[in-house]
Amino acid sequence: MKPVYVRPKSLKPTPFHYCPGCGHSIVHRLVCELIDEMDMRGKIICVPPAGCAVLAYNYFDIDVCESAHGRGCAIATGFKRARPDKIIFTYQGDGDMAAIGTAETLHAANRGERITSIFINNAVYGMTGGQMAPTTMLGQKTSTSPYGRRSEIEGYPLKITDLIATLPGAAYVTRTSLANPAKIRETKKSIKKAFEVQIAGLGYSLVEVLSPCPTNWKVTPKESFAYLENIMEKEYPIGVMKDITTQKG
Amino acid sequence: MDKKVLMKGTDAIGEAAIRAGCTCYFGYPITPQNEIPEYMSRRMEQVGGVFLQGESEIASINMVLGAAATGMRAMTSSSSPGISLKQEGLSFLAALELPAVIVNINRGGPGLGNIAPSQGDYYQATRGGGHGDYRMPVIAPASVQELYDLTMHSFDIADLYRTPVMILGDGMMGQIMEPIYLHDRPEVELPPKDYILDGAEGRPSRIVKSLILDPAEMEEHNWKLKRKYDLLTSRIPQWEEYLTDDAKLTIIAYGTAARIAKGAVNRVRSEGLKVGLIRPITLWPFPDEAIRNAAKKTKLFLAFEMSTGQMVDDVRLALEGSVPCEFYGRPGGIVPAPQEIARIIERFWLQREL
User: In terms of CATH architecture, what is B3-235?
Assistant: First the structure.
């Protein structure tokens, strides 16, 4: 009999610590499926963030190097420059990627580092308990924007993926969502493409994944998927922003 | 015998690193050490290594971290304000037990300060400017030859003990030119790098991390690091003694200040004053033993620094009150002449009726 659903070999048999309904578990699984399918385990290195996914090394059965908050793309640069034959990816949250690590992220992308970033955007700081993120939407209440984010006080949600898409060093830049199974499958395809772009040496690749955080959004897991689709995807439209493999000339 | 070549301090650091097998340099421009990244940008290309100008000191030290985790010999260099930015990375390198060499060509401070030679970063360097309970070997060369030799040595210490190592120079050390021998890398037996990340091919996956949420485990990690620091303290202290055998007054100075002090010792010796010099080469671990041995013979110590007084604390800690230690300092980028120090020595000599 042919099994239709198995645990990826690259995913350790450890129960996830993530909250019910959290998107990290889904993306972890997608990444591990791809590591198996693309036969990357022997040459891939992950740089997880400071944030909820700092514990990614408890689940990924691959080489992993912790990073200080926001420094993922700099560390990944060090890895890739020292070992260009390896596949390097950062796994980062919104605070890591687009607040404290903005400089490291933008410059790695602009240098066209042959690395891949998987950017989990849930519009809130998860691990520290629901504070405002750079990607928190206007009006969204968090523990440090209790009256809702106001542009005149806290500024606007930062669309770092859109910024990166304008940089010549970026080869593949896309935004996906975990709002339903079809979009989850699309997310997997996008991450696959991002790794392929890196392996082909084309430049920096980035997949932003809109991901639910029911705990800090203070909704049920079920409601969080509707929130993702109806509110987050309005602020952050999904789709490919840049793909040099399909550009002409 | 190797041929002698005339070399600038910053270039000697770069050449020593290259010949020590450093294959990855990451840095960000800041005066007075720009000649190091400039030198490395030329030389790394020639030897097939990696040179990359990071977008900041923070990015550069984290690039060093990534390269070090692959097992490559990696380094960065900067000057005081830039070294402040690298402190986060230094704490992580210490915690992750990754080897790396960090050069600080100390300039005047605090704040932006100036670009003149200073020793104001002694506390930051020797007390661990980064967070957490760690130590870091700090090495203070006092000549271009030493910049060369001790840079090579620093890479070996880093690999032997899996620790970041800081070379603490100052603007003067970086800028002077002296004839030096370009020795080959010394043969040192180094432990296998069984911690590196290069993809889990045919082996269990590895994790390089410092997050240890369980306090009992964290405590054990702290004690493990402490045992390493104790080993370093017993093994690597280095110093130079100059005319200390009969000295009634012993000056303690490092780096550029020690060169000035040596000139002052020669001056007062010609007047018959029995004065010697101890020059700490390792600032952490501090050469307590040399100070304590000298305390058996000498009546007065004089710490001289190009700061308002930082190393003097370590001298007094080593002395534990047994012999008094005076201090003289010139902060802010002032480099006094030996005559000035000679006058200070004479003043204390008379005051203390030595």
Answer: 3-Layer(aba) Sandwich (3.40)
- Cβ partners under 8 Å of residue A9, min gap 6: A32, A36, A41, A61
Question: Topology of domain B240-352, per CATH?
Answer: Rossmann fold (3.40.50)
Contact between B221 and B271 under an 8 Å Cβ cutoff? The reply is: no
Q: For residue range A160-200, list pLDDT tens digits in order.
A: 999 999 999 999 999 999 999 999 999 999 999 999 999 99
Interface of B with A in 57-96 (CB under 8 A): 58-60, 62-70, 72, 74, 88-89, 92, 96
Our measurement of the distance from residue B235's CA atom to the centroid of its chain's CA atoms, rounded to an integer in Å, reads 16
Q: CA B340, CA A13: separation in Å to the nearest integer?
A: 71
B240-352 has the same fold as B3-235: yes
- Give the chain B residue nearest A56 (alpha carbons): B207
What is the residue whose two structure tokens read 């080593």? B318
pLDDT at A248: 60
Q: What is the pTM of this model?
A: 0.97
From chain A residues 52-71, the ones with a CB under 8 A of any chain B CB are 54-55, 57, 60-68, 71
Strands (E), B195-333: 207-208, 239-242, 249-252, 275-280, 282-284, 300-305, 325-329
Find out whether B204 and B210 touch, Cβ atoms under 8 Å: no
User: Binning pLDDT at 50, 70 and 90, where does residue A2 land?
Assistant: confident
pLDDT band at A249 (very low <50, low <70, confident <90, very high): very low
Task: Specify the amino acid at residue B184.
Answer: D
Q: Which residue has the tokens 């929130």?
A: A227
Going from the C-alpha of B216 to that of each of A56, B132, B219, the distances in angstroms are 22, 16, 5
Distance from CA of A49 to the nearest CA of B (A): 11
Report the C-alpha gap between B212 and A224 in whole angstroms. Answer: 31
Those residues with Cβ within 8 angstroms of residue A209's Cβ, 6 or more apart along the chain or in another chain: A23, A27, A118, A119, A120, A121, A175, A176, A177, A178, A187
Count the residues in chain A.
249
Residue B45, number of CB atoms within 10 A of its CB: 11
* First-residue to last-residue Cα distance in chain B: 45
Q: CA-to-CA distance for B189 and B47, rounded, in angstroms?
A: 23
Check the CA dihedral B238-B92-B23-B115 and report its sign: negative
Pairing of strands B239-242, B275-280: antiparallel
pLDDT at B345: 98
Q: Which two tokens stand for residue A236?
A: 């952050």
CA distance B137 to B59: 22
Which residues from A are below 8 Å from B51, CB to CB? none
For residue range B302-316, what is the model confidence (pLDDT) as tens digits? 999 999 999 999 999
Residue whose entry in the numeric block shows the structure tokens 């200080």: A68
Domain residue ranges in chain B: 3-235, 240-352
